Amino acid sequence: MTRKNVLLIVVDQWRADFIPHLMRAEGRDPFLKTPNLDRLCREGLTFRNHVTTCVPCGPARASLLTGLYLMNHRAVQNTVPLDQRHLNLGKALRAIGYDPALIGYTTTTPDPRSTSPRDPRFTVLGDIMDGFRSVGAFEPNMDGYFGWVAQNGFELPENREDIWLPEGEHSVPGATDKPSRIPKEFSDSTFFTERALTYLKGRDGKPFFLHLGYYRPHPPFVASAPYHAMYKAEDMPAPVRAESPDAEAAQHPLMKHYIDHIRRGSFFHGAEGSGATLDEGEIRQMRATYCGLITEIDDCLGRVFAYLDETGQWDDTLIIFTSDHGEQLGDHHLLGKIGYNDESFRIPLVIKDAGENRHAGQIEDGFSESIDVMPTILEWLGGETPRACDGRSLLPFLGEGKPADWRTELHYEFDFRDVFYDQPQNSVQLSQDDCSLCVIEDENYKYVHFAALPPLFFDLKADPHEFNNLAEDPAYAALVRDYAQKALSWRLSHADRTLTHYRSGPQGLTTRNH
């Protein structure tokens, strides 16, 4: 078997507990249908405890594609530049002879020292990370997508984003069971799929690396027909949240900030009002729409998988399915990818090896992180993991199993300066550089350390939904201390080590790896 093809599928804002394969394993009846993802899970290995190491989109994708924790790549928020010195997956693939193609986006702002301040890339949310060849870009400003829609004969409205309003002259923006104004034939998910098939057919069987990105189930939460009506609100799980937004906000100053400032318009095109005041019916409808968007992606993936089958490339292709981050979906009275709750950070990861899969259909409970994807791909293709990389290859899990020295906790970070709606540093009265948190979480406890705000500590066995902060409980003082030490040790052991293995001496420059 010749290892030659890699398909990296990166969806946007798909949280881990919306994976039917995991639901069945946990004894839950799936409330959505994803037959093509189910196939991938049957033929590959599904990771139950997988997290993005940071949010939102730009930082998360920087970690995914550099293998670095947020504390090392420092692209801490959307529109914050990524230092050009960091090696990324695209550049690393070029070094071993691959021309890495990318469909979608990476939400990357270039290093201003590498270009002019007048560079148009500084006027948009993000651009394509250096090293990748764009074969189906979404940015800047979704021009590629809207141009494709217009070229195919669909008349765009004056405000072209109004295609994501619900159908009907008198429809009210918000959680809705009405379809969007754009038919599925011209949806963004169809656009990305068409670009993928065009690229793959152009390769004509030659080896490829393809980053296939999808915008969904990212907001706005409205789906094209028939996906808008595929699921019923009453069949969706109820949100996990305190009895009121005020009760939730009392847990921590950062929680209060977000509950006070979430805007519906960021999630429903044209909507107004507070996102924290959605009632249970609206949340269930939002979740039904979210599931419809997921099933649309699954149908699109089915077309890509069918092409790989038809051309005999399925068994020669490493396929990795993941998301950049999760989505609160009304849990804890929150929307989006913010804060410190698992809903924002736990994401899917499914890996199907080429050829025979000895762990096909199984679920791995070991702790994996988004920074592990880059070294996994490079090792599979015969390359080396860059020394600076914080992640580790997951290939042992596809073979002999979890290494004896594998991590025993999950780690993730959030830098909340200038994020989303306003400037949190003002409401919590912090400097920008103090607006950060990190999380250490295992199967028993979760510790949230803030640079300049009170910590949080949760007993996950007794309180799996993280309502009861025990950080100030004397009975837990020793555990809080232990987990704070874990956080400190984690940061110390992952300080930048790009050059720390070099030594100079009488024999000249030497290296040592241990």
UniProtKB/TrEMBL annotation:
Xref: Pfam families: Sulfatase (PF00884)
Keyword vocabulary terms for this entry: Hydrolase, Metal-binding
KW Glycosyltransferase (keyword) present: no
InterPro entries assigned to the protein according to its UniProt record, in alphabetical order: Alkaline_phosphatase_core_sf, HdlasePehA, Sulfatase_N
Ranges for domain Sulfatase N-terminal: 4-382
Molecular functions per Gene Ontology: metal ion binding; sulfuric ester hydrolase activity
GO cellular component: cytoplasm
KW Cell membrane (keyword) present: no
UniProt-recorded name of the protein: Alkaline phosphatase family protein
